[in-house]
Each structure stands twice: as structure tokens, then as C-alpha cells.
Amino acid sequence: MNVRIGVLLVPLLVPLLLLAVWLAWWAPKSRRPLQVDPSHRDALLAGHRKAAGWRWAGLGLGVVAAAVTAWTATFGLHNLGAMLAPTVFGLCVIAGVVVGELTTIPPRQGVRTAALETRTIGNYLPRKLGGLVAASALGLGALLVTTTLMGSVDDQGRAGRNLSRMCSPERGASAGPWPGSFYSVPLGIAVVVGLVVAAVALRTIVLRPRSGSDPDLVAGDDVLRRRSAEAVTAATGVMVAASLSGVALVAAGALMGFGCAPASWTILGIALLAVGALMLLLTAWCLALLLAGRRLPPVESADTVVPSQAVRP
Amino acid sequence: MSSALTITPDDPTPPFEQLRRQLVDLIEAGQLVEGERLPPLRQLAGDLGLAVGTVARTYRELETAGLVRSRRGGGTKVAPPAPKPSPRERQARLADLAAAYVMKARALGASDAEITGAVLPNPSERGHPLAGQPAKLAR
After folding, report:
1. Residues of chain A neighbouring B48 (CB-CB closer than 8 A)
2. Which end of chain B has the least Cβ crowding within 10 Å, N or C?
3. pLDDT, tens digit, for every residue of A44-54?
């Protein structure tokens, strides 16, 4: 593994995870109790537990798969694995959410009822987080195009892995690793695949059949859908923000450490350093939401409040 | 939209027809007003456990009847109510309906008095909807 990036990753990952756990701990907890008819309570709680179980399974699988992907860097892939690890993590979490949604589809028996409603992704998508993730995705796309255009061949002839410039008509300088086409093309493809999968997952959440049209049931079911949509958005956030952070910090390192860098490169490097730090914060926030996001509020039925049913996701 | 749609598997009426009737009732009763969007095909099919084609057939029939309008990407929305017919058109349609009725009644072998009596069992009876109406209606 390239020593420079390896040294960069470890001190970044540990505080990032600590920040995520701290944010998760302080995530808003108080929720208005959910009024649910006793006849729907058990089904709602069972659906919630099933969805949460699969979500956690996806999270666990994501951690392992991301670690394995990052570890493949030792097999001559020059940190490509570390670049792809956040996308692999996000895809696993989204897969967990989708499986959770599919396993909570109610059985079809007897008279079937449907509310006369139009459900859209917008009904369940967390607006602010969704906006931040979308803006980050656009930023990542723009940065990858820029770094691809600026990249050049490294000393071993691999295209798009170094940043080069002629310091004088006789002398050229080169710095790397640089997130040129060697990294940007596979990363770009992986992130696009991740975004498409996230869109399909959100559609699955919206189209999951309801088990009835009772307003209590619809309200409780909507809480579960919002939680799933939040998890998908947060997983996409990790995918995009962590990738953007990695690309920005590596590019900033190359730009600022360049021997004969023009002033514009230094300014760009400082800006990318700031972007990288901000994206790390967004990654931490998304991880916190995955660990302890929107919970099922206390379920209130007839005359009983069951606070113990406020199951953690 | 707080109404619900129901499908009864034991009902001999095909599901698309059950769905069509309920939607027609909701539109005619004004519970679904002009411009209101019907649930997307896949969503409604999933919620009711029907094939997408079944719901699509219902929507197609509603569209043929002029009750809804479908636009690609814009979903299916309740169409504006059909304009009221002019007095002349109304008269012509009534005449058509009456002619069809008389023809079927004659095929059954009904006499003129029976045909008229079936429409107006006893117009002079108190409380009858046509009581006190001009006699030409009974002709």
C-alpha cells in the first residue's frame, strides 16, 4: 500500500468513527408517540424489527466488504481499493435496506384494501440530507473530470496517476499519486452504479405494498419508509462524501506538495483541503444516521404507551 | 384523498371491473375532483395485490369513458366533467333512449298501456317523482 495514503487514512478514520459514534449518541431522541390501533401494533413492530435487522446486517457486511476492498490495495492496485471502499460499504447497506423492505411485504389474503394516495420518493426522502448528498455527488463529478484532465503518466507508464508540469523549458516536475483517470474512471463508474442502485432502492421503498388503508397503519408504515429512505440516503452520503473527501485530500496533497506549483494550484489545493474536511464531517454525520437515525417512536395503543417498543434501528 | 379501494377475491366480478366501478363512483360523487391524480399503476397494483396490467386496463377503460386523462410521465388525473348537453341534444338522447326502450318492450309483446305504465306506474299517486308532471311525458 502506498505509504503516503496509508498514513493519511488511519489518523482520519479513527476520529471519523469516533465523531460518528458521538453524533449518533446525541442524535435527537424525543419523538411524539405514534398512535396505532392495537390490531396493527404487532405487525408494525414486527416489520420494524425485520427492516432494522436487515439494515444492521447490511451495515455489518458493508464494514467487512469495505475493509476487504481497501485491503486489496496490497495486491498491486495502488490504493484503488481504498478509493472504492466507501462505495462498496454504501452498496452493502443499501442492499440490506432493500432486502428488509422486500421481507416486510404483507401477505395477500382475503379482502385487499388500498388507500387512494400517490406515494413519491419526495414523501420519504430527507430533504436537507438529500440535498447535501446530491450537491456532493455533483461536486465529486466535477472534481473527477478536473483531476482526469490534469492527470498525466507516472514513472511506470500508467496513465492518469501523476500530476506533471514543466517548471522551465528544460526541467519538468511530477507528483503523485494523483486522482487522474487511473483512479477517477473506476471510481466514477462505481459511484454512478451506487447512485443508480440508491435510486432503485428508494423506488422499492415507495412501491412496497401497504397492508391496508387504515390511517393509523399508514402513519406507522410511513415512519418505517422514512427510516429506510434515510438509511439509503445516508449510505449514499457515505459513498459520495467519503469518495469526494479521499479524492480532494489526495489531490490537495499533490497540489500543495508540488515543487514548482503555480499560485493557482496552491489555492486549489487549499480549497480542496477544506472540501475534504467538510466531506469528512458529512461522512461522519451519515454514519451517525446509519447507526442511530430516525427511530420508531413510542407506540401508543388504545390506553397504553409502550416506551420499550421504541426499538433502536 | 382519504378514500380507500377494495378488492374482494370472492366476488365473481373481475378485479378490473371492481376497481373501475369504485373509481367511477368516487369521481361521480365528487370525492375525486378534476385534476386529482390517481395512484400510480405499480403502486396501486402492489397495494391491492393485482397485476399491473389489471390496473392498467381499469385506467384505460376510465380514459375511454372520458373520466380520466393519462399523460406519459404525468400520471393519470381526473378529467374535467363532460359539458352538459344542450336542450336539443338532451331531447335527442332522451328520444333515442325511449325508442330503444319501446322497441325492447314491443319485442316482449307489451301493449302501449303496459309500456307507458311501466314508466309511469301511477303518475297521480302522491309522492311519485313524476306526479303532477305534464301529461305529454306519459304519452
Report:
1. 112-114
2. C
3. 888 888 888 99
Task: Indicate the residue type of A130.
Answer: G
The answer to the question of residue B91 being in a domain is: yes
| C-alpha–C-alpha distance, residues A173 and A195, integer Å | 37
User: What phi-psi label fits residue B75: left (phi over 0), alpha (psi between -120 and 50 degrees) or beta?
Assistant: left
Question: Is A273 within the bounds of a domain?
Answer: yes
Is residue B29 situated within a structural domain?
Answer: yes
- Helices A3-26 and A215-256 sit at what angle, rounded to 10 degrees? 150
Please name the residues in contact with A209: beta carbons below 8 A apart, sequence gap of 6 or more: A105, A106, B46, B47, B49
Q: What are A300's three cell numbers?
A: 401508543
CA distance to A202, A229, A296, B11, B133, per residue, from A35 (Å): 26, 22, 12, 34, 56
Q: Which domain holds residue B95?
A: 87-138
**pLDDT, tens only, A45-80:** 888 888 889 999 999 999 999 988 888 765 656 677
Does B2 contact chain A (CB < 8 Å)? yes
User: How far is Cα A255 from Cα B28, in angstroms, rounded to an integer?
Assistant: 69
Mean pLDDT of chain B: 85
Check if the interface score ipTM surpasses 0.95.
no
Write out residues 66-85 of B within 8 Å (CB-CB) of A. 75
**Residues B59 and B96 placed together within one structural domain of the fold:** no
Q: Tell me the residue range of the domain where A257 lies.
A: 51-105+121-163+175-296
pLDDT bin (cut points 50, 70, 90) of residue A2 is: very low
CA distance A168 to A151: 19
Q: Which of residues 29-68 of B touch A (CB under 8 A)?
A: 32, 37-40, 42-44, 46-49
In this structure, are B65 and B34 located in the same domain? yes
